[in-house]
Amino acid sequence: MVLVVFLLAYLLRRRLDTLDHLSGDRFWLRWFHKAAKVEAGQEQSLRSGLVLIVLPALLLGVVVYFLQSYRLELLVYPLELLVLVLLMGAPGWRHTLRVYAEAWRRGDMQAAWHHVQHRLPAEDRGAALSPDAMHLALSRAFMHAMFQRFFLIAFWYVVGGIGLAVLVRGLVALSEQWPQAAARPGFRRLEEVMAWIPVRLLSMTFGIAGDLSGWLREIRTGHHDGKKSSDDILMFSANGSLTGYALDPERFSRIHPNEWVDFGGRSLSAIRDLLNRSMLVWICLMALLVISGWTI
């Protein structure tokens, strides 16, 4: 039944994202402001933030356990569906990518930068990036956001249940929205620990859903060692799995100079398609596990 609940939640969440509705980030932001004030010298402390995500995760896990103990599974499934819809999703990205691609097609790189700078990591905002560097930074941010808000949640929901899915999504929110910026790197390190297995699984999925030979060549270069961050692994894997130099703007501009105006939109479309196919592979894998007798 986990497969059915996740599939329904995923389809509903994608529809909400298309309509730009129901952002879970707003909920986390309001929740975290309960601990906006800390004592001097405690700005790097992780304790308050961890308490704020462990408590709802634990409470939800206990509620699900008791409902299942009393054979009230019919109440568990709608509850998990609702929570998954709130946990997943990245509303706003669709509009951002569309206006960025349109600005790129017009050759207006300043407008393109204006549309996407709020989506980029803090170290890239305000920088005088070249079009190539700007596009790679946006691609990295987009893939990482989709991984955090869909694949990471899907993995831990299937492995550990809805409580663990809440905990992992809470870590993502802490690393991005915790009021005390000094503590965010600590939360980001914890998130990387939880992402270690799923991001490598997604990397392998890229090879299955994309260009397997290109992905294998990328693997042989040694980019997938255990010290790489999640977004680095996603970039290297996607670059090997995509054809047509979709993540190599410099080479694309040399080989196809007349098609440069379409590169921005074409590259982002290729990345979206790769992510969609990868999620389809994950869903098929879950279905195969159910068919083989696994209880998920």
From TrEMBL:
<protein>
    <submittedName>
        <fullName>AmpE protein</fullName>
    </submittedName>
</protein>
<keyword id="KW-0472">Membrane</keyword>
<dbReference type="Pfam" id="PF17113">
    <property type="entry name" value="AmpE"/>
</dbReference>
<dbReference type="InterPro" id="IPR052966">
    <property type="entry name" value="Beta-lactamase_Reg"/>
</dbReference>
<keyword id="KW-1133">Transmembrane helix</keyword>
<feature type="transmembrane region" description="Helical">
    <location>
        <begin position="49"/>
        <end position="67"/>
    </location>
</feature>
<dbReference type="GO" id="GO:0046677">
    <property type="term" value="P:response to antibiotic"/>
</dbReference>
<feature type="transmembrane region" description="Helical">
    <location>
        <begin position="274"/>
        <end position="294"/>
    </location>
</feature>
<feature type="transmembrane region" description="Helical">
    <location>
        <begin position="150"/>
        <end position="174"/>
    </location>
</feature>
<keyword id="KW-0812">Transmembrane</keyword>
<dbReference type="GO" id="GO:0005886">
    <property type="term" value="C:plasma membrane"/>
</dbReference>
<dbReference type="InterPro" id="IPR031347">
    <property type="entry name" value="AmpE"/>
</dbReference>
<feature type="transmembrane region" description="Helical">
    <location>
        <begin position="74"/>
        <end position="93"/>
    </location>
</feature>
